Amino acid sequence: MKQKLATIIAATLLCGTANSQNPIIQTKFTADPAPMVYKDTVFLYTSHDEDDAPPGQGRFLMRDWLCYTSTDMVNWTDHGPVASLRNFKWADKAITGWGGFDNGAWAPQTIERDGKFYLYCPVQGRGIGVLVADNPRGPFVDPLGHPLIGDKYDSIDPTVFIDDDGQAYLYWGNPNLWYVKLNKDMISLAGPIIKDSSFAKIKDQKDPFHYQEGPWAYKRNGKYYMAYASTCCPEGIGYAMSNSPAGPWEFKGYIMKPNGKSTGNHPGIIDYKGKSYVFGFNFRINFMLTEKHHERRSVCVEEFSYNPDGTIPELPWWREEGIRQIGTLDPYKLTEAETIAWSAGLKTNKDSSTGNVYVTDINNGDYLIIKGADLKKGPASFKARVAPKAGGNIEIRLDSLQGQLLGTCRIDKGFPPQWINVKSKLARQKGVHDIVLVFKGGEGELFDFDWWQMIN
Ligand code: FUB
């Protein structure tokens, strides 16, 4: 199934979409984006729709939470799953095997406090848990051994923020919005659980103010924001503002109107390197594969500027061409193969013993694009770490699938696959270009791909 899906994606995405960026992840189905800026990097946590989610609305197959990073907003590095239902021993039905309770790992959010990372995870039907790690990429552990929020409070879709006075707030819920203060340890409650009254007033699901789910809380320039999936169905992204984290909330409008290209939605909003971004998702890749609705979503991003009064302009539906890159990528540094702006036909895998993530399911005609690499005076050669299978070639091209061929890296057949370094000469070319790596070969999987680097 996995192989077949990759091949179909390659065939459909090859049709003139090489300049796309949205959705920003193509190697897996991702949803419920929760971006976190930490130091100079955006950490994007997502939920994960499995490839074999059956047809039909609401038939989710969600077992783990994924993490991606970027420093330029267009090239995203895949760190694989950082936590799963198996992290929560109390989610007993979830850990008896993936069968029977596969639809639990819903919309998460991570926040940093005093050098520790807290990942709030809904286990649908069981409550909201919290995991802690010393590193944003994990490993995450459950410090409590029980849910932080029990299952009686519409307990999905947590969002968390820390106010300027150090008080942390956790919000969540569908169909109601609930909130509670957290203690400084971020894993215990500092007050009663409260149902928010502003959102509860709007009962009509077609009312643009109607709170559905997927809240995203933050503070900016002294104002409190609550973005959320609004109206049903489809869901758009609406937002409200307040002078207090406890409301009352005033509805401000749509950030994005509902669109039939998606049933659900889930905002994630950040400021990064002087720009503002909203994340959400669409079903573009699912509907490239089939006319049938499967719960197989894909995370998208759009850039925006706040109005002078702090309100957010209404944005068009996710544009396929995506957003502008911040800065350039240095191709003389080792670049993980799973650092990708756009790809076709590829999957990624995480070695469970080493934690190494690599690109796999590479077949003839598959490709990946890295945006905006600064070649400077021009590289002389290309080095890559690969594990050969049937063997094949990596064509190193500039700017498009048919762009200038700088070189071809040959990879001989090898069984069983073992990691080796391969190298090829490059025609020197200067300046800033997109790097397009096109995989060519015969039948079957050609090789796995760990990293690449250009050499002067
Ligand atoms: O992604 C699973 C669930 O679907 C989310 O937690 C909800 O917001 C809805 O989008």
Name the CATH architecture of the largest domain.
5 Propeller
Q: CATH-wise, what's the superfamily of the largest domain?
A: Glycosyl hydrolase domain, family 43
Per CATH, the class of the largest domain reads Mainly Beta
**What proportion of the residues form beta strands (DSSP E)?**
35-45%
The hetero compounds bound to this protein are: beta-L-arabinofuranose
Share of helical residues: under 10%
Count of structural domains: 2
Give average pLDDT, whole number.
93
> What Rg do the Cα atoms give?
22 Å
Q: Largest sheet, described in full?
A: 5 strands, antiparallel
Q: What separation lies between the terminal Cα atoms?
A: 42 Å
Detail the poorly predicted runs.
Answer: 95-100
Overall 3D form: globular
| Number of strand segments | 30
- Number of helical stretches of at least 4 residues: 4
Spatial order of the strands forming the largest sheet: 1-2-3-4-20
Could you please say which CATH topology of the largest domain applies here?
Tachylectin-2, Chain A
Structural class: mainly beta
Protein name: Carbohydrate-binding protein
InterPro entries: CBM6, Cellulose-bd_IV, Galactose-bd-like_sf, Glyco_hydro_43, Glyco_hydro_beta-prop_sf, Glycosyl_Hydrlase_43_Enz
Organism: Filimonas effusa
Keywords: Carbohydrate metabolism, Glycosidase, Hydrolase, Polysaccharide degradation, Signal, Xylan degradation
